[in-house]
Specification:
This is DUF35 domain-containing protein. It comes from Pseudonocardia thermophila. InterPro entries: ChsH2_C, ChsH2_Znr, NA-bd_OB-fold, Thioester_dehydratase-like. Pfam families: OB_ChsH2_C, zf-ChsH2. By secondary structure, the chain is mostly beta strands. It contains 1 helix and 8 strands, in the order βαβββββββ. A hairpin with a 2-residue loop joins strand 7 and strand 8.
Amino acid sequence: MIVNTEFPLPGVPHPVSDFESAPFWQGLAGGKLLAPRCTRCERFHFPPLPACPHCGDSTLDWRELVSTPVVYSWIVVHRATRPEIPVPYTVVLAEFPEGIRIPGNMAGDASPLLRAGAPLKVSIASRDGLHVVVYDRA
């Protein structure tokens, strides 16, 4: 996984970290993309929840995702919610072989080249203490 790539969107507000999502944000800060996995049914889920959405068990562990995701869907944003965010930018919903989908920004202007099922490379961008998932074409 590539760490400290170019930050995709200046001016983005910091997300709120709560008890369920703290390991996700701590993982990104440490250069790892982590997702919760149920120790009972051994299935991953995202976004983080207090219990497994598949079986209801609350015993979860966090595993690093090292597999190659593919494009599930994407959207090109042409009107930002804040004036300091440059447009257009692309948000990708990436599907991992573990059965979960994680959103992130697309690096650069690759949106014309995107297609469903295309493999993606995962990286983590950092700025001012904020760490986010960024995707690029593999």
